[in-house]
Amino acid sequence: MAHGPATLADGWRAYISRWVFTTNHKDIGTLYLWFSFAMFLMGGAFAMVIRAELFQPGMQLIRPEFFNQMTTMHGLVMVFGAIMPAFVGLANWMIPLMIGAPDMALPRMNNLSFWILPFAFAILTSTLFMEGGGPNFGWTFYAPLSTTYAPESVNFFIFAIHIMGASSIMGSINIIATVMNMRAPGMTYMKMPLFVWTWVITAFLLVAVMPVLAGAVTMMLMDINFGTSFFDAAGGGDPVLFQHVFWFFGHPEVYIIILPAFGVVSQIIPTFSRKPLFGYSSMVYATAAIAFLSFVVWAHHMFTVGMPIAGELYFMYATMLIAVPTGVKVFNWITTMYKGSLTFETPMLFSIAFVILFTFGGFTGLMLSIAAADMQYHDTYFVVAHFHYVMVAGAVFSGTAAIYYWLPKWCGKMYNETMGQVQFWVAFIGFNIAFMPQHFLGLAGMPRRYADYGLQFADWNMVSSIGAFIYGGAQIMLLYNVIATIRNGKPTTEEKTWEGAEGLEWTVPSPAPYHTFAKPPEFK
Amino acid sequence: MSTESSYYVPEQSKLPIITATGMGLMAYGAASWVVSGGSMIFTAGLAIMAVVMFKWWSLVIDENMRGLANDQLKRSYVLGMLWFIFSEVMFFAAFFGALFYLRVIVNSWLGGDAAIGLFDDTPTDAAVANNAILWPGYEAEWPPMITPDQAANGENAIFKGPDEAMSFPGWAKLLGWLPLWNTVILVTSSITVHIAHTGLKNNNRKQFIGWLALTVLLGAIFLVLQVEEYVHAYQHMGLTLESGIYGTTFFMLTGFHGAHVTLGTIMLLIALIRAIKGHFSNEDQFGFEAASWYWHFVDVVWLILFFVVYVFD
Asked: Which of A50, A92, A360, B194 has most Cβ atoms within 10 angstroms of its Cβ?
């Protein structure tokens, strides 16, 4: 473009059309990030409703039907609306900068991938206001709850999932094409930053499993409206088929969420340890191994479904295998820090917390993978605690670390370090108060997705709710910190914001110019 | 790795937001269509999509003709198409996987003869009990002409099996068996599109256009025959979407395949129109090549389908 990006000074029309019609990877990355944060706050509001209702035993605030809609929508919005788009936003911003590309490979399709999402989530959210209420069958939408017994709004949910899937597939194809085709001369595959590696593997997972999710919701649509019997034993189908198809998508999906988080942390820890990442190639192979294994372990989500014993054993051992490449990663992060000259700026604090808490969540995952023990844990708060340790302390902590780490590069302003660290400690403490007690609740037998509970669970539920409110408050602080930085942050123009940072993104000025690397840089 | 220095990054574009609007309207419209019956919103979305897709591809073709697309950009398109086809493979994998699971595992559980182990075909107690309590009288067979519902509830059943299946009719009736002809047509069309491709590579435009036209024709004939087959199934075989799991898997697998043949035929038709207008050369032919890859892909899907849905019953 001849001129720079339109700002508010050019008038509203120009400013809005810049964002709506843009083909610029940085603009699109910014759109993804703000959209995902809006969804994060909405999903967070649903979580607050859940925790407020569970503050005390008995029904106080909402009806159980609405509680079910809240748990369902919280899960859907957080997974598909907050975490996934947040990492796609980071990919859009950082991958072209990291590999020395002028933009994403297919810039117009990139814009389309983003702008589908507001439509998809408008449709999904509108179901809450429909007759019969929104989806109330859990974010895993098991048949027949989501077919025979579902509210009519399930049809809107199905088509929202369809277009979300289209968005994800296009976004992923774009990332794969960018990484395979747009690297600067000298940037061989084994020299790519780890964030790029984890993302290209994630994109592969997305292209592989989003169509399977589309298949699952299509089968639901046909069963609900057109008389087929995929999930109805009366016609020769099987509700368990739904779980197989869903988890064939769903298990890779959890790695889709966590692999980019691994990538972010693998960028940040070396920077603040002032040492190169320990075991770079083993990190790459471990990521690929995790991605491969994710396709062959899905039924560990279904141990109590009545599988033959051989199936239980196979899925148990296969699942445990995942601990090996994951262990390699944790070992490498810790070894990177070993004997480094560490400093503890906010991104580093979040990353260290990530390593500790994610590992903790990994261990509870190992407990859950034991088929015999899972008979006890299945569908209890222990599971809820486990996946919040990996999804929140894993994905969200690493996403927050990424925001603090790259914010100076994005807007040329430095965040307030004290505020950042305060936000970290509030988030860290709030998170652990919220979710640690849920392990105890689950082991004591409290089932998940219930609007009410027995008196013996009262104390830890109240503690958990208090923690959840604190953690919710920490996100408002994050929003404040980001806005305050953009508006009044101390300007920084140096290319290398962080003394120990390596990589092409730190060779361009801060804020990164609208167009970078029109000519590919020479990468040593 | 990038070697050129001038990758074409397009300027701002209105096409994506219009596409997203069309998709949003289609999604919302399809849902409200099945819920309350009106197809207005869906149709509006579809119309927007049709126009914007035409505009978008016209623009890409035009950019290519103006020489804006360098080799590197063309590689991006190649990668995009390959990974798109991979996503389609996975979509079909979901339905083939479902068919396998329903046929091999679920059916024997419902019939009460799910085996204890791989080498011991004594039925498990659970399967026997499942059959006796829930679906008494149901026997596992494929194709299932009687649904478990019918076996247990007789005339009151909601799901009623088909009168006839699409199975192999025996050697004597082989030549009158439609699926065989459909297989011949699709395999032939894969060969004709390849001959067209060879013609283009050798700068033989007559060969290119003639064989491409033949391919489009074969695609259209395939679709007509499939419609014929569906009409026959509904009117004379009692085989519908609602005839239990056999009708479900038959129509969903062949239906999605048919939808993809339709899309492939449209792609090839557009390539044909462009070829007649003088587009494509032995150097620059990806618009056609992509369509031909897609065509080979639907052909392979059909071959798998032919064997697992029609032949091995």
From this structure: A92
Please state the separation of Cα A145 from the chain's center in Å.
26
Chosen from A24, A103, A111, A514 to mutate, greatest number of chain B CBs within 10 A = A111
- The yes-or-no answer on residue A510 being catalytic is no
A-chain residues near B27 (CB < 8 A):
119-120, 123, 159-160, 162-163
Residue of chain B minimizing CA distance to A205: B87
Other Cβ atoms less than 10 A from the Cβ of A190: the count is 9
Question: What is the three-class DSSP state of A349?
Answer: helix
Q: Is A521 in contact with A507 (CB distance < 8 Å)?
A: yes
- Kindly list the distances between the CA atom of residue B96 and the CA atoms of A301, B92, B239, in Å, as whole numbers in the listed order: 22, 6, 20
pLDDT band at residue A2 using 50, 70 and 90 as cut-offs: very low
Does the annotation mark A162 as catalytic? no
Over residues A347-363, the mean pLDDT reads: 97
Q: For chain B, where are the alpha helices, taking DSSP H only?
A: 15-36, 40-65, 71-100, 107-110, 125-134, 148-153, 178-201, 205-236, 244-276, 286-305
Q: Is the peptide bond before A276 cis (omega within 30 degrees of 0)?
A: no
Q: Which of B23, B35, B245 is the closest to A229 by Cβ? A: B245
Which stretches of chain B score pLDDT less than 70? 1-5, 313
Q: Is A102's CB within 8 Å of B7's CB? A: yes
DSSP character string of A427-445: HHHHHHHHHHHHHHHHHTT
ipTM, two decimals, is 0.95
Asked if B147 lies within 8 A of A106 by C-beta distance, the reply is no
Q: If we measure between CA atoms, which residue out of A255, A251, A165 comes closest to residue A201?
A: A255
- For the stretch A212-258, pLDDT in tens is 999 999 999 999 999 999 999 999 999 999 999 999 999 999 999 99
- The pLDDT, as a whole number, for residue B176 is 86
User: Which tens digits make up the pLDDT trace of A287-325?
Assistant: 999 999 999 999 999 999 988 888 999 999 999 999 999
Ramachandran bin of B239, using left for φ above 0, alpha for ψ from -120 to 50, beta for the remaining angles: beta
Catalytic residue among A18, A162, A191, A448: A448
